Amino acid sequence: MNDINSGPGWYEVISPRATTCIVYVHEDGSLYLPEGEDSLNPTEFAFAAARGNAHRLVRADEGQ
């Protein structure tokens, strides 16, 4: 069973700075940070994901 909060796609992240950010994770694991690294950097993303604070965004009409 795959973890819903892993793999490529868009994520909402509760950063260590107690703010929320949107991040896109590419298949190779690199990040697209549309708000820039001033809002969240790759190290902070890894920290947030390890603590369970990165939640994959899914469309409501996507199949389960």
Q: Can you describe this structure?
A:
Helix content is 14%, strand content 27%. It is an alpha+beta fold and 64 residues long. The protein is globular.
Question: What's the topology here?
Answer:
Elements lengths: L8 E6 L5 E6 L5 E2 L9 H9 L3 E3 L8
Which runs of at least 5 residues are low in confidence (pLDDT < 50)? Answer: none
What pattern of helices and strands is seen along the backbone? EEEHE
| Helical/strand content category | alpha+beta
Mean model confidence by pLDDT? 86
Helix content range of the residues, please? 10-25%
Order the strands across the largest sheet as they lie in space.
3-2-1-4
Question: Termini separation (Å)?
Answer: 12 Å
- The helix count comes to 1
Main beta-sheet strand count, sense and barrel state: 4 strands, antiparallel
Shape descriptor: globular
Beta-strand content bin: 25-35%
Report the strand count: 4
Rg over alpha carbons: 12 Å
